[in-house]
């Protein structure tokens, strides 16, 4: 019919995916793994086998099993030794652990294909439940690994995306290690963003994402994000809380808009927005004085610029950008003494920063060494030579003999 509106209901409501990322950024099997280094130690608890031809022939996923190693925990070997076999669901759980520890593992795609054929969506829903149960008892590594495994099965699985982001958030809030906090904070932020992009009607992701932006000083983003939360949430208590937060954000949002004016070259507009806050509770915010200084300098008010930049340094004595602005001003004025003073300070701060970075790197390497000593890595993983018996109903697989991959069969 001519003129018929063919938009979906969501589109008619104005709910669309405004951002669709490339799989290299959204698929956990392909994207950078910021936090995998903290889980790979658990892979040392596994040995590997291969499905026998007989078992593959009887399995409905047999065509996918050829050449694929079976992960087995060392505790599983007793069941094999006794001949009673091992439930296939136990092997599925082991596959989930391996995928969750390292989504880039060379056989992750094989595991996903096998498990999808055997169990379909019920398995990744089970992984989600395992993860949530682990989180409730405080086993956050366990929880995170299961959420990552579910995302290997289905990268856009709403509840796994959200639960994974929440788990990463809880883990960095409970740590005092700077490197650890930085990695988990970045992962949490990215997955809250991915969740809102992929499932734009899911309110709670906006709730936590708004707080993440707020803690980063991104007030405009927090404001916009929380307005989306209010649009979709039905939680009266949370909505009341966020309305109060938005009221508190009104002035910081104006200040950030002033910063953006200055950075975009709209200096007079920036001054008009920012100068009123010099007589407000935000007078002690050093970025306010820094951006005012830039705007003053770019509009020819050099005396006010110098005063603003020096005010910054009374609040943030090591702010290099401010020192660079002052050094540039004194260079133009031919004031060699003051120019050299700030250039020397910049050089000293950069040197100290480099030394701090070296010390942090050394600390990280020492922590990694201690971790390896506590969880010694096998240079060659153990390998189960063969399976002696199979259950035609795919419920169990049986006996084994262990050998090393570095030994000839």
Describe this structure in words.
Residues 366-397 have a biased composition (Basic and acidic residues). Keywords: Repeat, TPR repeat. It is a single chain. The protein has 409 residues and is mainly alpha-helical. It is built from 19 helices and 6 strands. The protein has helices spanning 9-12, 23-26, 53-58, 62-65, 77-82, 88-101, 108-119, 121-136, 140-153, 158-173, 178-198, 203-215, 219-232, 236-263, 267-274, 286-298, 302-315, 320-333, 336-374, and strands at residues 46-50, 69-73, 86-87, 382-384, 396-397, 402-404. Helix 6 crosses helix 9, helix 8 packs antiparallel against helix 9 (140-153) and helix 14 (236-263) packs parallel to helix 16. Residues 7-13 and 375-409 have low confidence and may be disordered.
In a few lines, what is going on in this structure?
With 409 residues, the chain is mostly helical. 64% of the residues lie in helices and 5% in strands.
């Amino acid at each position: 019919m001519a003129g018929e509106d063919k938009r979906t209901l969501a589109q008619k409501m104005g709910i669309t995916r405004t951002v669709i990322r490339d799989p290299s950024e959204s698929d956990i099997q392909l994207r950078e793994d910021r936090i995998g280094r903290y889980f790979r130690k658990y892979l040392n608890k596994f040995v590997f086998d291969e499905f026998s031809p007989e078992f593959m022939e009887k399995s409905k996923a047999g065509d996918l099993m050829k050449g694929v190693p079976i992960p087995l925990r060392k505790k599983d070997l007793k069941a094999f030794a006794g001949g009673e076999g091992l439930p296939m669901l136990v092997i599925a759980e082991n596959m989930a652990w391996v995928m969750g520890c390292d989504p880039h593992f060379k056989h992750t795609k094989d595991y996903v294909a096998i498990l999808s054929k055997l169990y379909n969506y019920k398995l990744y829903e089970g992984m989600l439940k395992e993860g949530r149960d682990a989180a409730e008892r405080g086993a956050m590594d366990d929880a995170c690994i299961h959420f990552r495994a579910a995302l290997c099965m289905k990268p856009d699985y709403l509840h796994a995306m959200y639960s994974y982001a929440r788990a990463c958030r809880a883990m960095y809030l409970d740590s005092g290690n700077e490197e650890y906090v930085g990695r988990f904070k970045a992962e949490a932020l990215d997955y809250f963003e991915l969740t809102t992009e992929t499932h734009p009607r899911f309110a709670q992701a906006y709730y936590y994402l708004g707080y993440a932006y707020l803690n980063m000083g991104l007030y405009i983003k927090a404001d916009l994000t929380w307005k989306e939360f209010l649009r979709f949430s039905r939680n009266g208590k949370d909505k009341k809380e966020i309305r109060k937060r938005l009221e508190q954000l009104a002035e910081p949002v104006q200040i950030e808009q002033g910063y953006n004016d200055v950075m975009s070259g709209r200096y007079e507009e920036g001054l008009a927005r920012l100068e009123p806050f010099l007589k407000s509770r935000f007078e002690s915010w050093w970025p306010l004085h820094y951006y005012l200084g830039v705007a003053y300098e770019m509009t020819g008010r050099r005396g006010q610029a110098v005063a603003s930049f020096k005010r910054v340094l009374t609040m943030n004595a090591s702010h290099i950008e401010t020192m660079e602005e002052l050094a540039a001003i004194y260079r133009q004025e031919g004031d060699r003494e003051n120019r050299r003073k700030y250039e020397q300070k910049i050089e000293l701060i950069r040197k100290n920063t480099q030394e701090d970075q070296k010390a942090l790197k050394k600390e990280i390497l020492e922590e990694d060494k201690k971790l390896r000593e506590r969880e010694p890595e096998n240079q060659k993983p153990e390998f189960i030579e063969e399976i002696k018996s199979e259950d035609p109903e795919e419920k169990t697989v049986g006996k084994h003999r262990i050998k090393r991959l570095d030994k000839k069969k």
